[in-house]
Design goal:
The chain has 51 residues and is mainly beta. It has one domain. 0% of the residues lie in helices and 35% in strands. A hairpin with a 6-residue loop joins strand 2 and strand 3. Bound molecules: zinc ion.
């Protein structure tokens, strides 16, 4: 198992446009599965994932 270390000193980089990410945007989704969220990059709006 790999350990996970939380950090606020390094910012992630968008794999799509290569820009440094200072935050990730999300929007709520209404579905039969209940309240879900879609996460996307603020610069290029590419979707990171859904929870
Ligand atoms: Zn991007």
């Amino acid at each position: 198992m790999l350990p996970v270390e939380e950090t606020n000193e390094v910012n992630p980089i968008c794999p799509h446009c290569g820009k440094v990410l200072f935050k990730v945007l999300c929007r709520g989704l209404e579905s039969v599965f209940g309240k879900r969220y879609i996460y996307f990059y603020p610069e290029c709006h590419k979707v990171l994932g859904v929870s």
